[in-house]
Inverse folding.
């Protein structure tokens, strides 16, 4: 703790916070000799002690309310994921073509897709301002309103111009929601639930994309314009949940603390993190660290000030984490879905319905990988997962490209085993990628950013994500058309580069509170500092000593 906390007790939001209750007694390990005592290595002794002594009842009414709050944020990601699987199917529908005559490829279709991305990029800076000034709840609510307006515009369209304007509005609304929602999820979760809460939020992509694929598939059988209008209308379904749900969930305690509403922030922590006990060790720790670490005159009060990301040592390291996860999470080969059709045709799957079934299977398998990772996010080291997972992505893509090269050499005498192997290796890549990146795309940026820079950093991340998506969307098909399967080699090499980058520059954030990460990023080498561990002695279920050696 900082030297400013010299008083034994301070009053924060009407609650007396005792540093003595938070601190763990230091020693040489003598307590390990007592009967039943055992030693354990942890990232932070104070947090580990607080978690052991504060057993949050996961079945309590307050915990269920917290789950619902995270579910509202999850629905924001669902809205984004729904759009990700929507337009490709809609554009292919006969009745859509009879109305707009856009063709299934070409400039008009490219504009339809890209205006959503442009809208999201334009909206991101305004999303940060909205979330910082009026709160995370208002950000989610406002985004849902804008998306609903965009849905009305596109679903009632009869002209290309109206449809394109609607796509821009939809993208603008999505950016507002996806800046506010992950910040909300990470800020309301107890420290030891944070990874699962934020990872679950990001899995909302599949919560939208899989239903979208199913809706488009089902509505394709309708023989009128509602075949394409209904899928567009259903895009607002997740928004209805958000518009209703935000009135029944609490505001982020960190936003409240940053805006001088200390009593409300402390009341939240007592209710949802401390089982209603203001003397709970976890509550005492969080209140003390928030009071120390969250400035009420931070850059969240200066809407267009992004200088700390460049001018401070910790700011540069923080934004580096955001940049890496934003770029690598979009450009690790996961944009190679265009290549599926070629593989399908090689193994004899030529009908649209069969190809749709394979695409749906791929989405489901990816979702399984992502959800498996979510369940383990709070116990798996982030950095190791990214290093080994990214390298495994390279290996799976290398297998796929090798088999694809063999298929190319076989000419017309295709061996089914090679084709099925190529398809299986691509499915495996998507499972590995989803396990490695899907939860952490939500976790890494929200943990890397501190409270007063979180919305701005997430807005910057959103711009980068959509910019890289824009490159994937336009460069991918051209590269695949020119060099075919050889395009995969690019990602094999690039994933190896990413692996090296994560090893040397990835900061470990698991096992610490958001405020404790401030110490990590202020060290000369944050990567090395993030790997620092504490050795504690546990006796009778409590942490009784933090072992301190003379050369520590």
């Amino acid at each position: 703790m900082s030297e400013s906390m010299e008083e034994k007790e301070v009053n924060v939001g009407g609650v007396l916070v005792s540093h003595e209750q938070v601190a763990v007694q230091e020693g040489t390990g003598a307590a390990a000799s007592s009967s039943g005592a055992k030693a354990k290595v942890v990232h932070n002794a104070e947090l580990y002690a607080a978690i052991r002594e504060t057993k949050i009842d996961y079945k309590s009414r307050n915990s269920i309310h917290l789950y619902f709050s995270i579910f509202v944020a999850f629905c924001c990601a669902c809205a984004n994921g729904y759009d990700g699987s929507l337009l490709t199917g809609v554009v292919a529908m006969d009745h859509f073509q009879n109305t707009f005559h856009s063709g299934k490829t070409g400039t008009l279709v490219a504009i339809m897709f890209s205006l959503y991305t442009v809208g999201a990029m334009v909206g991101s800076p305004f999303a940060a301002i909205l979330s910082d000034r009026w709160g995370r709840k208002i950000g989610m609510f406002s985004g849902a309103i804008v998306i609903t307006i965009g849905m009305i515009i596109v679903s009632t369209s009869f002209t290309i111009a109206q449809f394109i304007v609607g796509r821009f509005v939809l993208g603008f609304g999505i950016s507002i929601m996806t800046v506010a929602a992950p910040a909300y999820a990470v800020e309301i979760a107890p420290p030891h639930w944070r990874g699962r809460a934020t990872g679950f939020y990001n899995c909302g992509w599949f919560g939208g994309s899989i239903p979208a694929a199913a809706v488009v598939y089902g509505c394709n059988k309708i023989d009128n314009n509602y075949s394409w209008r209904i899928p567009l209308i259903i895009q607002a379904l997740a928004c209805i949940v958000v518009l209703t749900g935000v009135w029944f969930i609490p505001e982020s305690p960190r936003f409240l603390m940053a805006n001088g509403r200390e009593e409300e922030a402390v009341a939240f922590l007592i209710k949802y993190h401390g089982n209603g006990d203001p003397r709970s060790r976890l509550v005492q720790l969080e209140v003390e660290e928030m009071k120390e670490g969250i400035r009420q005159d931070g850059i969240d009060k200066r809407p267009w000030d992004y200088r700390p990301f460049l001018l401070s040592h910790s700011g540069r390291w923080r934004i580096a984490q955001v940049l890496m996860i934003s770029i690598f999470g979009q450009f690790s080969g996961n944009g190679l879905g265009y290549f599926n059709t070629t593989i399908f045709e090689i193994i004899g799957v030529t009908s649209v319905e069969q190809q749709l079934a394979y695409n749906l299977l791929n989405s489901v398998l990816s979702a399984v990988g992502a959800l498996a990772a979510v369940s383990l996010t709070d116990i798996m080291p982030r950095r190791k997962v990214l290093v080994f997972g990214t390298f495994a992505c390279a290996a799976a893509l290398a297998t796929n490209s090798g088999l694809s090269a063999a298929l190319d050499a076989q000419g017309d005498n295709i061996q089914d085993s090679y084709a099925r192997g190529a398809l299986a290796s691509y499915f495996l890549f998507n499972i590995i990628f989803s396990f490695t990146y899907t939860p952490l795309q939500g976790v890494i940026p929200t943990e890397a950013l501190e409270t007063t820079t979180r919305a701005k950093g997430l807005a910057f991340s959103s711009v980068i994500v959509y910019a890289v998506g824009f490159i994937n969307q336009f460069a991918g098909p051209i590269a695949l058309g020119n060099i075919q399967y050889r395009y995969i080699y690019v990602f094999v090499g690039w994933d190896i580069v990413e692996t090296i980058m994560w090893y040397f520059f990835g900061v470990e954030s698991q096992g610490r509170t958001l405020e404790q990460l401030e110490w990590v990023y202020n060290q000369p080498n944050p990567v090395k500092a993030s790997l620092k561990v504490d050795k504690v002695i546990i006796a009778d279920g409590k942490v009784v000593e933090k072992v301190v050696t003379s050369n520590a």
